[in-house]
Amino acid sequence: MAVYLDHAAGTTLRPAAAAAFAEALGAVGNPSSVHRHGQAARAVLEEARERLAAAAGCEPVEVLFTSGGTEAVNLAVVGGWRARGGGALLLPGGEHAATVEAAEALQAEGARIVHLPVDAEARLDPAVLADALATEPDAALLTVLAANNEVGSVQDVAALTAVARAAGVPVHVDAIAAFGAVPTRFDASGAQLMSVSSVKVGGPAGVGALLAARTAPVRPLLHGGGQERGLRSGTPSAALALAFAVAAEEAAAHRDAEAVRVAALRDRALTGVLAALPGAVLRGTPPGPGRLPGNLHVTVAGADGESLLFLLDGAGVSVSTGSACLAGVTRLSPVLLAMGVPAEQARGALRITLGHSSTASDVDALLAALPALAPVLAR
Q1: What residues contact 246, with CB distance under 8 A and at least 6 apart?
Q2: Residue ranges matching CATH 3.40.640.10 in the chain
Q3: 66 near 234, Cβ under 8 Å?
């Protein structure tokens, strides 16, 4: 039986979300239509908006539904920078590929990227941000992860947004990895923009949201019908939105208890991995409130991460070497390099992530599969 331990790439669908999706999918009608079928679809969409807003700590009007986390990030970074009329874009090291590539695409429009160094745990120091803002009078936008999707380090978002706010710089927070796993509220973050995704909280793929304050600087990337406050044109899927909201609601309701349960499983897996893999080093913050509860990321000295992944896959355990957005790309993790991990060590990266459906038997299967890595470790 195959065991899934790559929940950071996309966790399993929650039964309640699946049921809500199936029921709403049977309805007909465009939420923008004025007839009764359209208004019934609109009612489902607005119910989803209200429920997601409650789970995320924002007003319903601040929820803009998108096709997923990547679109939400692009709308925030590209749309946010354009709305500010240009200038510097502050980009910490180790950000997700969606953010990095959106920022790099803006260079053709004159954007100047200011790269901010992170520490050995992939976190941005507020003092480093303050120093950068002091020398960048034309800073247009800061974008920052709430929690690193590869190594699991949780960022002090409130401290960073306070520094940016004092300098008059709006902030986009990529909360895709954090939302549902650790306390994440838009109204407490100090940010003007925040990206979240359905597939990370147990909802279906194909839907996400950008949480945008009423006064947030952002311009639309898509043009057409003017849906979602005129910032994201296109007919939204009421069924996907409702399933996302149900998953987010359930994740929020059980977050604290689940964090304790999943972290205990993670710690047991970590003990086994460190014992079985000579030269393995935990990357990111130590286990505790500063780390995502389901994240276990190690580098194994002298090993190749992809070889470890394939051997585990052959033993029936699915893990990853890092972000799924870089899967199949033969290059070292930009996150590890930004943390100062030497290239020869970064090559041995292995990310094992647990989620709401993970069980003790999953950890048992992982530990039982570790001896299968011996051919690589013996080299």
Answers
A1: 14, 16, 17, 20, 51, 203
A2: 15-253
A3: no
pLDDT band at 376 (very low <50, low <70, confident <90, very high): confident
The active-site residue, picked from 325, 337, 367, 372, is 325
Domain with CATH 3.90.1150.10 in the chain: 3-12+255-377
What HEC string does 318-360 produce?
A: ECECCCHHHCCCCCCCHHHHHCCCCHHHHCCEEEEECCCCCCH
Query: What would be the CATH architecture of the domain defined by 3-12+255-377?
Result: Alpha-Beta Complex (3.90)
User: 147-163 in b/e burial notation, b at 16+ Cβ within 10 A?
Assistant: bbbbbbbbbebeebbeb
Establish whether 325 is a catalytic residue: yes
Note the pLDDT tens digit of each residue in 322-363. Answer: 765 555 555 799 999 999 999 999 999 999 999 999 999 999
User: What is the CATH T-level fold of the domain 15-253, as seen in this structure?
Assistant: Aspartate Aminotransferase; domain 2 (3.40.640)
pTM of this structure: 0.96
